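DOMAIN: structural biology
WANTED: fold as tokens
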Amino acid sequence: MAAASVRAVDFDQDIRPLLQQHCVECHGEKKQKGELRLDAKVFAFKGGHDGPAIVAGNAGKSLLYQRIASAQEDERMPPKGDPLSKAQIALIQSWIASGAVWPENAADKAATTDKRLQHWAVQPVAPQAQKASIDSWINAKLAEKNLTMSPQADRRTLIRRLSFDLLGLPPAPERVEQFVKDADPQAYEKLVDELLRSPHYGERWARHWLDIAHYADTHGFERDQLRPNAWRYRDYVIQSLNADKPYDQFIREQIAGDVIAPNDPQAVIATGFVAAGPWDFVGQVETKSEMLRRAARAGDLDDMVTQVITSTMGITINCARCHDHKLDPITQEEYYRLWAVFAGVKRGDRDVDVAEAKRVAEEKVRLSKELAQTRAQIAKLAGEGLDLAAMVGGGVKGRGIDLRTGNLTANKLGYHRDIQTNRLQRIEWPAEVADTDRFVSWVFVPDGRNPVPVAPKLEVKGLPATGGHTWDIIRNGPLNAQRSTKIAGVDYAEKDHSILGLHANSGITFDLVKIRRSSGLGAMRLAAALGFGADAGAAASRADFTVHVDAERKFQKLKMRKDEFTHLDIAIPAAAKTLTLIATDGGDGIGSDLLFLGDARLVPELEHSRLTASDQDKLKQLRAQAARLDAGLKAQADPAKVYAVVSEAQPPVVRVQRRGNPEDPQQEVQPGAFAWAPHASCDFGTNETPEGQRRRLLAEWITHPANPLTSRVLVNRLWHHHFGQGIVTTPSDFGLGGDRPSNPELLDWLAAEFQRGGWSVKHMHKIIVMSAAYQQQSVAPNETAGRIDAQNRLLWRQNPRRLDAESLHDTVLSVAGTLNPAMGGPGYRDFNYTEAYAPIYDYLTPDKPELLRRSIYRFVVRTTPHQFMSTLDCPDPANLTPARAQTTTALQALTLSNNEFMLQQAASLATRIENETDSRAASIRRAFQLCFQRAPSEEEQHAATGLVTEQGLFALCRMLMNANEFVYID
């Protein structure tokens, strides 16, 4: 052994065979345990995640030697089979000690040549002959298998196919007959142009884009709160598609529109794309655990990066979060470089027009100050008192934060990220109103077991015990779930009254010093009606109300019942500094408990003397002035907002997370992307580069004309929706794990034509639907073709397709004559909403015109699927959905036959037909025309006559709406 250890060791003769035989199986090209490869010199000396495997000249520090020579069985390598012999170990030890000379040969060079870089999807789009066509490429592939296209479909089939594909709605029977009888050889092309001009086109194709943006109108997760301003992004998509906005511009705006065109409201709205996905309120805001916050933020950034890259470039970038991508040549570091692009991006409501929002805010501040001063003069002169609700509102509707949602909302007080039990919390007013007079200084959540500070160096004691938490602090308006705002028959939510509500458990302190300074009042009295507006179902609920002037308890009412009331008349000395109102839960939890004060006023202690004529005249003028100011304030509409990108000027530094663990950060990374697509520089500045500039550079990189993926991915998505499957059947995976194109030459021709046409999506639609391939029959019998190409990848016929859930829903309404054509605006809410810790969405059968709009305008809830829609394969908006599942189940047939919505619409269809026809035979023909866009056959007319005679027209309508011909596109 001693002789073997000192003799010259030949790597190719002695060492390489040992590595090949014992190591490469687990540490080679196909498998890299511990991120270590030993099949090539460059990888072996780089080492794995435990450090360098080979330290030339020092076997003792080389992990390779340590592991093969280990006496510990659980550490020794190789883990399976016989260990290396002492002689073999000595050879490796001697080789390392003598300098670890590793001559590179052809195998080394081959191992370091990444074949994945030659993958078809990242090669430049091949220049194609401009005179070629879709049909020439299709026919060429068919000819290789001795196949041909099927005959052209009849005109009735074609107009139905086109209408559903481009509009998502059936054609009117009258338009079908007109097209069928039109002898003009250009009739088909004119029909295509007509449909592409329709505003319903944008509604239809926006649905496809929103699927891959996983858009919804709520946050998701267990606290699935509303996003009332998300709809503007949905409308942006519809409007952009209708306007045929160039696709490269469409993408750039959605990633960085607020940077590219900050003064263009539509460009700002476009960034709703980045924010469209789910958001974990508990992990991002509510939790006290910093570790959980980091985990939630990591999920948030992963969602943004995955959505942007997958939707635009068809790359499964998220596979590189925990390690280098197993299939595609994308490193973990490159993945985190994309994180650095979005590191300064948060989701939230933002002003659509910043300049207009600033103007409105400034005007509200001016009006609010003048109104407060005028009301103080009126109160001092007439003794009418100062309205506490007006003090809270301050003329800006008392903006505040609901502790359940984290959303800045109207009719609430202050801005609070976190309020701890018994901890005094100063009001954090929004910046645009921070400089107005604020008479409310402190809020708190009492637990009732300990003294509560209501102001510095001032505590109150003797409060009832509470659960120590609350939903929100205060409202100067009614609670959604509250049964009534009436006290003793007076509705204090109506005009000429005011209402100030305190949610149990919460306390609020008014600054009497500031109030006196502003109003000139001295001694005062608090006068108000006090009521308890419990949830309608909370008959047994109880609540408490306590009033303190400074530290002295002036009033306490315990265990108030729902709809119980009383009146307050509390003296406040001229020297008092604070007035504190406290609502607590009565010992039975917060429920929807809201104690509210009606017409709560601080009334001056005045001598009861009549006003002089001069004072009366002055009072009249002040009241008129107050009325004008109040009207002006109400006329200032809240600036439009959109749920979109909210950015930080200087983002935090991003580090690679070992194995995707936020608690194990590694090396720092700079903003950038992956080098696999080498069309342009993938460096997007440094960690000093402003947040918006990073997104702008990413947007330009994605839409660079030389990017081989962006145009390929988009035309393939269009193809998928026109033929039921893409040329690449994995629309969001163009990597090595995805499908290869069935016709790569056609795909490249389409991609090239897309850019030649100015990135016009409508141009590509027209080219596709004008092709003979698109116009083929879908039911042509061809046993030979079916045997050779069962999946129809070569397109020897058109593919029959089932209507998706939204198209089916809209078609039912269209046929029944109940479809509300209103476009745009907030989504319709076909559910009853109950405000709670986790909101309750209880779906209902739509029976009002505002609920019978196209389904693109439906308010989409993430965690509570719509039963009718989800049964018909409407996807989960928590996930990116490039291709919808198509299932066939008995439940679907039962739903179409028995769902209350379907029964309602079948009845509406029957009524429509009865109003449009004057005989049973005509009614049957009209039913077939509306549902199938054709007349019934003689056999169908005879069978339908028997059915209508026995069971009425409703039975026929119900049956036709459940037929395959109604549900499928040929």
